[in-house]
Amino acid sequence: MTTRPKIAMVLAAGLGKRMRPITDTRPKPLVRISGKALLDWSLDSLARAGVDKAIVNVHYFPEQIVAHVAARRAPRVVISDESERLLDSAGGIVHALPELGGAPFYIVNSDTFWIDSGVPNLARLALAWDAAKMDILLMLADLQSATGHSGGTDFLMAPDGALRRSRGDPTGLIYAGAAIAHPRLFSDAPAGPHSLNAYFDAAIAAGRLYGMVMHGHWITVGTPDAIPLAEAAVATALAEPPGTLAELTSPFTELK
Asked: Its Enzyme Commission number (predicted)?
């Protein structure tokens, strides 16, 4: 991809039920890790990747998120209001399509984040993107590079980056909550609530779902007791030296 995406969809409308009681009074994207709101970890990564506009969907305590992002200039934030009806991951994207435009765009979850090692992972994702053969390109993490993940793996990756479901295979990879998608994928999408997982499966069936293994450390914070673990992981990751040049310039990592 010669030009990086300039627009991103940030999924920030979830209820954060597992984060209670903290989320009794605030939305999960505003939970702070190492002094920074989860939402700002996502938006700062997008700013480093050169994104000009981020569409942030809101539903739970929407006024708090609107107030929080009001002063941001990079990227410029546009609010996609779902306060009347929660639309789930894909439904939120479909609702925001008029703002997302006709070019490939980033999708970023606001409740997970990562510490880059070397070249920013979103920049690497753009370099790995190939619209001729991909509908979606996922950023992936291995289990050893993750903190706070309590589930299994999501995908197995072929040497060329093509993905299939891992079905619990421990050698698989985790979806790291960031992707590039082409808007054509949603051209016939329904308007109501539905999940991105259906689009992942459709892309697998068409041979058009690909992945890229991130460099650095991926962090997810599902419950209040995971916060100190996340903050310790941030401190450790920031203290680590960057990877080698060979690691930083390879967009795909083959699974042995």
From this structure: 2.7.7.99
Q: Does residue 216 contact residue 142 with C-beta atoms inside 8 Å? A: no
Query: What pTM was estimated for this model as a whole?
Result: 0.89
Q: In sequence order, what are the residues at sequence separation of 6 or more whose Cβ sits closer than 8 angstroms to the Cβ of residue 135?
A: 181, 182, 184, 185, 199, 203, 206, 208, 209
Where residue 118 falls (left for φ over 0; alpha for ψ -120 to 50; beta otherwise) is: left
Q: What are phi and psi of 236, to 5 degrees?
A: -65, -45
Residue 113's SS3 state is strand
Q: Which of 93, 91, 27 is nearest to 60 (CA)?
A: 27
Instruction: With CA atoms as reference, report the closest residue to 38 among 219, 165, 240, 239.
Output: 219
Collapsing DSSP to helix, strand or coil, 223 comes out as coil
pLDDT digits (tens, 9 = 90+) for 168-181: 888 899 999 999 99
